[in-house]
Amino acid sequence: MIKQTSLDFLSNLKLNNSREWFEQNRDLYENYRSDILQLTENLLKELSKIDNAILQANLDPKKCLTRVNRDLRFSKDKTPYKNYVLIVFNKNYPQPNKAGYFIHIEPENCSVGGGVWQTTPEYLKKIRQEIDYSFTDFNKIITTSEFQETFPNGIQGVGKLKKMPVGYNETNPASELLKMKGFCTKEPLNDKLLTSKDCIKTVMEFFKTTKPIIDYINKAIEYDE
Known about the structure:
The protein contains ten helices and five strands. With 225 residues, the chain is an alpha+beta fold. Strands 1-2-3-5-4 form a five-stranded antiparallel beta sheet.
């Protein structure tokens, strides 16, 4: 679980997104960061028990967190800080284009899931090819009652093609999946859940259910690498 003060810090940062306010409240930031890091360490410990690839990756919890500073180089929005934190557990770190688990913490906009929201054209081609070759296997994962109850919004991604990608046709049983540009599970989390004693247990249930998707995607990406 995390403390309510951590969510409050993010809410206040959204309202006061300036370097002056941040420096005046650096002690609050340090407490918030320590709290989020503790959550990250606890989740990583539990995740390592069910995913051997994560265990062998020896991930540094600090590097599983996004930085609070925003990259302003190409952004019209010049607010200096992110009013959220993204925790990502990816066995292939620092390669962000492969599949991993995530939890997004932002007051009234928290979510959890795993997979690849978007990836490189090379990896996307491999994933589509694997789904075409073994659609039955992929379909078995996403049609189980456990998966559908845990992830009612199904598989999501950064976008979807209007037409079939080159090399595939509409008669393909996996046609709607093959049009996708990302393959990720993502469901909202209630803020109260994150501050409750059931936080770790509940997030881990999401992670356990999305693990087969992550394994499937990474197997496709890593084929012949």
